[in-house]
Amino acid sequence: MTIKKSPKVLVAGPTFDGMEYCHEKFINRLKNLSYDNYDVLLVDNSESNEFFKKLKKESGIKAIRLQLENISNINRIVRSRNRILNYAIMNFYDYVLMMDVDVIPPVDVVERLLAHKKDIVSGIYYNVFMVDRKKKICPVAWKGFSDEEFEEIRSQVSSEFVTSPDHLRRHLSPEEANGGELQEVLIPSCGCMLLNRDVFKKIQYGVLDVPDGFSTTDDIYFCRKAREAGFKLYCDTGLQCEHLLNGKFQRNGDEWVHPLHR
Questions:
Q1: CA angle 240-214-165, nearest 5°?
Q2: Residue 2 located in a structural domain
Q3: Is the dihedral of CA 73, 74, 78, 79 positive or negative?
Q4: Across the 262 residues of the chain, what is the mean pLDDT of every consecutive 10-residue run?
Q5: Distance between CA 149 and CA 197 in Å, rounded?
Q6: Beta carbons within 10 angstroms of residue 140's beta carbon
Q7: Is 243 strand, coil or helix?
Q8: Within a domain: residue 1?
């Protein structure tokens, strides 16, 4: 009898020396995931070689050094993430679990995300955002607006960049973020996002070309290109992760809190 092997998964993320504060907890978690067929890869884009030497010596996992000079931080991240995707393609991985190194997933993250059988699906975590000129903890996951909602909002703004509902988004509401259900989203929690090989063979990370005064990220670019290619994106709101912004996000009962709100 032939025993079917579990899908081959690459758990990976970009890093640099500024993230050293969370590396021990992150690496220990990735080394001890409960899934039975995965490898770990970190891509270091620090300006100097010192952190990479320490990473290779202490982590005991595979690391790649990208020597990038005279480019922006966002482009360092883009090239690091694309290096991960290319490595996964060349080494015949079925999935990539794309991580941020300050996000600590549950030990069974791979099994739980695979179980949804989606091309793109994430866990969920939180961050501090400016909302109505106040700092607020919100889920790092966004939904879009209906056509009717978009037209109402569009009539109140003046921008050549805002031309479709895909250009506007809202955070998941507290009810949506804590519902414990799988949600179709515009942008999931991309620092803990499982990608099927069909996705990363077609889509690479980049930066949107936006007008002055607007900002964008590699995650926004990737998600938009994925949607344009016909992929749907999902967030498992029951798969809650820690977000170690300088090691400070902690669970308090059923909520994630930050010292800002203690």
A1: 65
A2: no
A3: negative
A4: 83 94 94 97 93 88 87 90 98 98 97 98 90 82 70 56 61 88 95 98 86 67 95 97 69 43 34
A5: 34
A6: 26
A7: strand
A8: no
Instruction: For residue 17, give its domain range.
Output: 9-261
Show the tokens assigned to 106: 């549950």
Helix, strand, coil shares, percent, the chain, to 5: 30, 25, 40
> Taking the CB of residue 247, how many other CB atoms lie within 10 A of it?
11
Threshold 0.70, pTM exceeds: yes
∠ CA 195-28-192 to the nearest 5 degrees?
Answer: 25
CATH classification at residue 165? 3.90.550.10
> CA angle, corner 149, sides to 146 and 155, nearest 5?
135
Question: Where would I find the H helices in the chain?
Answer: 20-31, 50-59, 73-90, 109-114, 147-154, 174-177, 197-200, 218-228
Separation of alpha carbons 74 and 236, rounded Å: 27
Is residue 75 a contact partner of residue 207, using CB atoms and an 8 Å limit?
yes
